[in-house]
Design brief:
The complex is a heterodimer of chains A (390) and B (291). Chain A folds into two domains: 193 residues, Rossmann fold (3-Layer(aba) Sandwich); 144 residues, Rossmann fold. Chain A contains twelve helices and 13 strands. In chain A, α9 links the parallel β9 and β10. Chain B has a two-stranded antiparallel sheet. Chain B is globular. The chains are: A alpha/beta (390), B mainly alpha (291).
Chain lengths: 390, 291
């Protein structure tokens, strides 16, 4: 009897250790990752990134997963609203129990959940948000970012406009939230550096439907170039409206508008637009990227209408999966972090040149420029690097 | 001067569409005292139906007609199956019912048509423009204004000159008395919902080529239409039109000369100001409560 009681006691005492040894979101069969993004509302277009993450996981699982574990992606819709993103992340961490958050769309949304994620030491791979939000930020042990900085990107665009296009005055059309404001900030900094004058700052709200007055406002500024920080829909609308009122400045845009769908939405007016990009775009002759897109659209044919976001979803998942591979079968958070830190100049199928390290969490710090012409983007420059910030 | 006229022209084009949305909202509120928050989503559904019909090669009149009729039928069915059974409930329950239906519709549209932005083909071009002095107006904007005015005229003709219109007015004024006098109130209300749905779909179809089509494209125009209805007077059809046009022009001129940043806020400021100064709206009848 005493022996039985003693055995029970040992089992009871050992239980907490047994449960703590189990990593959240990791079982013998699967690894659970979560993300929050706009699957409804005015920015729902970007939600295709989540569908692509799911499609990529399915493709990976069909090949046996990683070290025998399947990847399960849990998506939550935040309608592009920061409070809903915060609630979603809490649910993903505390109720669903995810091993990592991959992505999370929107700079304002990422800001809203940043403290919670850091405080709870959740692995966070590539918040789809302006990377400069991490400059000078401490406690980044579990963070790994392969997304460019809007601020740095805007500087590069303004620089190019000044030096290569001979532009002296620039106007900025931007989304009135952190995404657009970071672009505007970069444009201002770039303007100082390149001796260009910002002659108009024209914001719009993401819910707004009509931007005709904004187009007139931009025309009145007589800027030689207009910089766009918008959703694909608003980017297309403003370009069309500007053409309508007879204003045809040089156009430069963030990589967020690097989608081939822009040609369908904006029509002829999209020709000549100069954008940045942080991975090879589909149809540019990069066979690995084209192959990745073929895989994604085979798994989820609906992604065909959204090739750029589909590839972005792949690009966000890729470094995470590489980390899982390097961490081995015995997966813990700490082992995963150590494994990620060994990634140096690593080329994935879509994302290229990723480097992490014990003091480095900014995996990429470069973009290149493209030019839109006749339904395609052509490469305009080689990679342009900016200083690593974190 | 031509700059001001340009802002006014832009405002008129947007305002005529706000007016169409506001008309639907007012029509329903007058007749059944329901604020229909699913109005925008119903309109979007109509556009998607027309979009699918066009993609299958149907000619424009048939496809656009299918969208209008389809929306009218769904709107009438919504009244008969969901609103009618809860009509006696509190105003809040009715609002929640319409909100629930709005969510259902938008979820359905995302499921069927996806969330990617689509180009809605339309007989009028957004790119072809007329230049009148220094003012630029696209073929589509001019067409929207004309069609908007035409629909407003047609609606007022129906409401003022036909038996259905008379029945609509009677039911709106006193449903019990109308019923006692032999007016089939249920059917008249269903017809009113159908007309309102059709109007919404028409607004959506004129809007979609200009602002591109996705399941959430009516979010902003619906809010503006709602503000226009409050501005004009919730029980006045001419008020809805006036409210729409005034709001459209005010927004555009405000963006041009005061602040482009707070343009989107103007509609809400208008709602608050009107409710404070003239709660019945510009053309609405004053409220009287007899004790």
């Amino acid at each position: 009897m005493h022996r039985v009681l003693g055995l029970c006691l040992v089992v009871l005492l050992a239980l907490p250790f047994a449960t703590t040894a189990q990593e959240r979101g990791v079982t013998a069969e699967e690894v659970v990752v979560g993300s929050s993004m706009p699957l409804s509302g005015p920015a729902a277009y970007w939600g295709a990134v989540g569908r692509a993450m799911e499609a990529y996981a399915r493709y990976l699982n069909d090949q046996g997963g990683v070290h025998g574990r399947r990847l399960r992606v849990v998506l939550r819709d935040d309608g592009y609203l920061p409070p809903r993103a915060a609630a979603n992340v809490r649910e993903l961490v505390e109720r669903v129990g995810v091993f990592a958050i991959v992505g999370l769309i929107g700079t304002a949304n990422a800001f809203a959940v940043r403290d919670y994620i850091v405080r709870n030491e959740v692995v966070w791979i590539t918040p789809t948000a302006d990377a400069s939000m991490w400059y000078g930020f401490r406690d980044k042990k579990y963070l790994f970012v392969t997304y460019p900085s809007y601020v740095e990107e805007a500087k590069i665009l303004v620089d190019y406009a000044a030096k290569q296009l001979g532009v002296r005055t620039v106007a900025v059309f931007y989304q009135n939230d952190l995404y657009g404001q970071k672009g505007l900030l970069g444009a201002k900094q770039g303007a100082v550096r390149s001796r260009v004058r910002i002659v108009a700052q024209v914001p719009y709200e993401v819910t707004q439907a009509d931007v005709s007055s904004e187009a007139v406002k931009l025309r009145e500024s007589r800027a030689e170039a207009v910089l766009l920080y918008a959703t694909p829909r608003h980017g297309a609308l403003i370009v069309r409206e500007m053409a309508k009122v007879g204003y045809t400045p040089k156009l430069l845009s963030s990589f967020t508008l690097g989608d081939p769908i822009m040609f369908a939405l904006a029509g002829e007016a999209w020709n000549g637009v100069i954008s940045t990009a942080f991975f090879p775009l589909p149809g540019m002759g990069d066979s690995k990227v084209d192959e990745a897109l073929a895989v994604l659209t085979r798994v989820d044919p609906a992604l065909r209408t959204n090739p750029y976001n589909a590839l972005a979803g792949w690009a966000f998942m890729e470094p995470f999966v590489e980390g899982l591979r390097r961490a081995g079968r015995d997966l813990t958070k700490e082992r995963f972090v150590q494994a990620m830190e060994t990634i140096r100049n690593w080329d994935g199928q879509v994302i290229r040149g990723v480097t992490f390290g014990p003091d480095r969490r900014q995996g990429i710090h470069r973009v290149y420029l493209t030019r839109a012409e006749g339904g395609r983007y052509t490469k305009l420059t080689d990679w342009i690097s900016y200083p690593t910030g974190f | 001067m031509s700059l001001l006229l340009q802002y006014v022209a832009n405002g008129l084009a947007a305002g005529s569409l706000y007016a169409l949305v506001a008309l639907g909202v007012v029509l329903l509120y007058r007749s059944s005292r329901v604020l229909n928050f699913a109005h925008g989503d119903l309109a979007t559904l109509g556009v998607f139906v027309a979009f699918t019909a066009l993609a299958r090669g149907w000619p424009y009149p048939v496809a656009l007609g299918a969208g209008l009729v389809g929306t009218a039928l769904v709107s009438a069915a919504f009244y008969r199956l969901l609103i009618k059974p809860v009509r006696q409930a509190t105003a809040l329950s009715l609002v929640i019912t319409t909100l629930g239906f709005a969510l259902l519709l938008s979820g359905l549209m995302v499921w069927i048509w996806g969330t990617d932005t689509k180009v809605f083909p339309f007989p009028l071009s957004e790119v072809r423009v007329y230049r009148l002095g220094g003012v630029v107006v696209s073929e589509l904007s001019a067409g929207s204004l004309a069609v908007g005015l035409l629909l407003v005229a047609a609606l007022s003709l129906v409401v003022q000159k036909t038996r259905l219109g008379l029945a609509m007015r009677a039911v709106a004024q006193n449903p019990v008395a109308a019923q006692l006098l032999g007016v089939p109130a249920g059917r008249v209300l269903a017809a009113t919902w159908a007309v309102a749905g059709g109007l919404g779909a028409a607004a959506g179809m004129l809007l979609a080529p200009a602002v591109l089509l996705d399941p959430f494209m009516m979010l902003d125009p619906f809010l503006k239409g709602f503000a226009a209805a409050v501005l004009g007077g919730m029980d006045s059809l001419p008020g809805a039109v006036l409210g729409g046009v005034v709001l459209g022009v005010a927004e555009s001129v405000f963006a041009g000369y005061v602040s482009v940043k707070y343009k989107a806020t103007l509609a809400f400021v208008v709602i608050v100001a009107v409710l404070l100064a003239k709660p019945e709206g510009l053309l609405g009848r004053p409220f009287h409560r007899r004790v």
